[in-house]
Write a structure and sequence with these properties.
This protein is about 40% helix and about 15% strand. The protein is an alpha/beta fold. Strands 4-12-11-10-9-5-8 form a seven-stranded mixed β-sheet, sandwiched between helices. Strands 1-2-3-15 form a four-stranded mixed β-sheet. Helix 5 crosses helix 10. The chain binds pyridoxal-5'-phosphate (PLP).
């Protein structure tokens, strides 16, 4: 018989873990209480998300480990929600950045450096697209790419999947209703325009719905991750990604693939691993080893169409056109991306990271099996995530429907109080080149104990 969770027991254990968290972190609690001049008491409001009522304050971080100001060291499987997938402060990236900004000098000058072409060529080798432009975040890379998609297709709407996340891109913070209308996702802060004007949103893994949405003829691009990763991992069903490619071409829409998280699938992301064929490719976070970086890649065809608009006078990408950012493509960011791709996130580090993610997944699955829990665990390369549903959700709405805040907080806190951190946003664990088998075993032990305490 499948075990159900006793909610009174869960709440009482959660209270115990909250008390323990407060006891163990007096200095973090004190710094949080003193932060009277920060909006939401944190430098960026997401940082308030940690279970336990206040965030751990960072003292230092190297490789796969973080030490807080109370002197506790943690195995970090959150890795800055993927931005630190290269490990914290990788030496090669630090050396290159120091050389660039200290020895040579020049952090941001609005002048190109030699690193840029090296990086462009490497991105082409990995992801296939021939031409690249840079941003400082994946959000910005997506925003710019969406403008270009609208320009070259002359169409207004972006097709996204319910519960996708592509940064704070207005078009993507949207939900599709069964009647075909699009509304702002609950919680979206003051959307600038009604998303019904900018977006069509359907369920992931539903090609018929994609086809119906495209049939309106007003979609400039489909914007998607190869697997949803921001509402748990929702893997594509066989044929889904190929179907998107075919339908996009059939209906004159572009296919934009955002691999900011799914680079976990391999050094060339799912695009290389699964043979995807995007018209525009977006990635950010990990490629700069933690230094702000983002980029989008374009096909020659799209670049030529943009160029046509610029000569004809209907678009200006060099001055007023809205595709830019003063600090984008800066010398420091490009030095960081080059060093990270050349020396840290190299082709050969994926296989051992994937092996570790597999061990992590097996550890979680063994607990699910032992206690016959109605949960599942999904892996995408170096990234793995458990969800409180079995079978695993097959689209964003199904995944959203099974979120369980109390259970999630209990498991996160139980782990954090015993030196293991997973992402605060859901139940994701990511491996970096410095993660070890012992780190993974520690998670398995702590997670087993957390579940045994709850249902054993
Ligand atoms: C798939 C995807 N795209 C884009 C972004 C935005 O990245 P950033 O916050 O660095 O702009 C995220 C962030 O989680 C993401 O998961």
């Amino acid at each position: 018989m499948t075990i159900s969770i006793d909610r009174d027991r869960l709440n009482s254990l959660l209270d115990d873990e909250r008390r323990l968290y407060i006891e163990r972190h007096p200095r973090s609690a004190e710094l949080f209480a003193e932060a009277d001049h920060l909006f939401g008491r944190v430098p960026m409001t997401w940082m308030a998300k940690w279970a336990g009522g206040f965030p751990l304050y960072l003292d230092r971080a190297h490789g796969a480990h973080i030490t807080d100001v109370d002197g506790h060291t943690y195995i970090d499987f959150a890795l800055g929600d993927t931005a630190a997938m290269a490990g914290h402060s990788p030496k090669a990236t630090i050396d290159a950045v120091q050389q660039r900004i200290g020895t040579l000098g020049g952090i941001t000058t609005m002048l190109p450096t030699q690193d840029a072409e090296w990086v462009g060529e490497e991105l082409t080798r990995r992801f296939g697209l021939p031409l690249w432009s840079f941003a400082l975040t994946a959000t910005d890379a997506n925003r710019w790419a969406i403008r270009l998609a609208r320009l070259v297709t002359g169409k207004q709407k972006i097709l996204v999947f319910n519960y996708c996340y592509h940064g704070s891109v207005d078009e993507a913070v949207a939900l599709g209703l069964p009647d075909g209308r699009t509304v702002a996702r609950p919680g979206s802060v003051a959307p600038p325009v009604d998303p019904d004007l900018t977006t069509r949103a359907v369920e992931f893994n539903d090609l018929a719905a994609v086809e119906r949405a495209l049939a309106h003829g007003d979609v400039a691009a489909i914007l998607t991750e190869p697997a949803l990763t921001n509402i748990g991992i929702v893997l594509p069903e066989p044929g889904f990604m190929e179907g998107l490619r075919k339908l996009a071409t059939l209906h004159g829409a572009l296919l934009m693939i955002d691999e900011t998280h799914t680079i976990s699938a391999g050094p060339g992301g799912a695009t290389a691993a699964w043979g995807l064929e995007p018209d525009i490719f977006i990635i950010g976070k990990s490629i700069g080893g933690g230094i702000p970086s983002g980029t989008y890649g374009l096909s020659h065809e799209i670049a030529n169409m943009v160029a046509w608009h610029t000569t004809e006078g209907s678009a200006d990408i060099i001055d007023v056109g809205g595709v830019g950012g003063t600090l984008a493509g800066n010398a420091m960011s490009l030095a960081a991306i080059r060093a990270t791709l050349e020396h840290v996130l190299t082709d050969d580090v994926w296989a051992p990271m994937i092996d570790l993610a597999t061990k992590f997944t097996e550890g979680v699955q063994a607990v699910i099996d032992t206690y016959d829990l109605p949960w599942s665990v999904s892996q995408l390369g170096t990234r793995t995530e458990y969800r409180f549903a079995n079978p695993a959700p097959r689209n964003g709405s199904e995944a959203a429907a099974v979120s369980d805040d109390e259970l999630e907080q209990y498991l996160h806190l139980f782990c954090a109080n015993r030196g293991v951190i997973i992402t605060p946003f859901h139940n994701m664990a990511l491996m970096c080149p410095d993660t070890t088998a012992a780190d993974v075993q520690r998670h398995t032990d702590v997670f087993t104990e957390a579940v045994r305490t709850l249902v054993g």
